[in-house]
Amino acid sequence: MIGFLVRRLLTTVLVLIGVSILVFLIMQLVPGDPVRTMLGQAATAERVTEVRHQLGLDRPLIVQYLDWVLGVLHGDLGQSLTLSQPVSSILFPKLGNTMILAGGSLLICLVIGVPLGMVAARRQYSVVDRGSMFVALGGASVPVYWAGLVIINIFALKLGWFPTSGMHDTRNPGGFDDVLVHLVLPSVAAAVVPTAVVARMARGSMVEALHGDHVQMLRASGVPERLVIWKHTLRNILPPVVNIVGLQAGYLLGGVIFVEVVFNWPGLGGQLYTSITSGDMPMIQAGVLFIALVFVVVNLITDIAVALLDPRTRRAA
Fold it and tell me: In angstroms, what CA-CA distances link 93 with 90, 97, 98?
């Protein structure tokens, strides 16, 4: 297990280095001049050159990259070009809000997706199985922003059960209950696709496990069906289910960006959208790096969890 952890940690470090290089270079290739965007089109060429020198944008790319990486390692993500504030002071609170939304969506995904797949597998080829998998296939094909608009139209505008946007009531901000009420609709919208994917994976793994030789032997030996399902079969489906849940957790970080824009949720996605439209390169770089970092860490945790559940995967890694 120690060797597996060392290999995975080294791989994670290499991936993070590659991600940092890609994020930096992609931002350099984006059309437009961030300095011109910051100063406005009326700025003189001399003023643009002066500001470019102050920001260090006239230095070689390798020097800019190394300075940026060293700054990131020391917690300095640069200065926002449009807000004139440290990027870290703007993004860290918004990253927390995004994690709240992603966590709520992941909880919905686990509570609905895994049981739905297990029930469908136990009743294979029944109306329940075909109906649930048809719904899951439709859910996996739905664009997340469209799902958000439909959910707002039904549960907020027509039924009036939940607020349409924001994280707090602007007229009378409350505590945890207020956040929870505002969290319901965006969490459901973000969870539509991951829940469908997890349900289909859970069903496939459960069907394969139920047809395994060991399960047939247990049934032939008179072991109660309840014990066959919860003690033996569930243990076999956990590794693939945990793996797909980890991948969907990473997907949620990308999916909630669109949800945050639709529901006006004050998270990282909304800030990234604003920064992209205004050409705020330091903010975009830091935001994309945050998402990539969380995605890599989540996958590392997932790999470790799968290795603990299924020792065979340690040798394959």
Answer: 7, 7, 9
The predicted-structure confidence for 170-186, as pLDDT tens digits, reads as follows 666 667 777 888 888 88
Give the chain's domain count: 2
**Residue 85, in any domain of the structure:** no
Closest to 173 (Cα-Cα) out of 266, 80, 111, 305: 266
pLDDT per residue as tens digits for the range 202-249: 888 888 777 777 777 777 777 777 777 776 677 777 777 787 777 777
Q: Could you give the CA distance from residue 284 to residue 118 in angstroms, rounded to a whole number?
A: 41
Residue 195's Cβ-count burial label (10 Å; 0-12, 13-18, 19+) is buried
Sign of CA dihedral 148, 153, 157, 159: negative
The identity of residue 96, as a single letter, is G
Q: Which domain holds residue 66?
A: 13-73
Four-CA torsion 73, 78, 80, 85, nearest 10 degrees: 90
Whether residue 292 lies inside any domain: the answer is no
- What's the predicted TM-score (pTM) here? 0.76
- Please answer whether residues 210 and 121 qualify as being in contact, where contact means their C-beta atoms are separated by less than 8 angstroms: yes
* Distance from chain centroid for Cα 69: 23
- CA distance between the termini of the chain: 11
Cα distances from 263 to residues 13, 97, 99, 129, 144, in angstroms, run 35, 13, 15, 33, 12
Cβ distance 293 to 283 under 8 Å? Answer: no
- As a whole number of angstroms, the distance between CA 126 and CA 121 comes to 9
CATH of the domain at 166: 1.10.3720.10
291 touches 255 (CB < 8 A): no
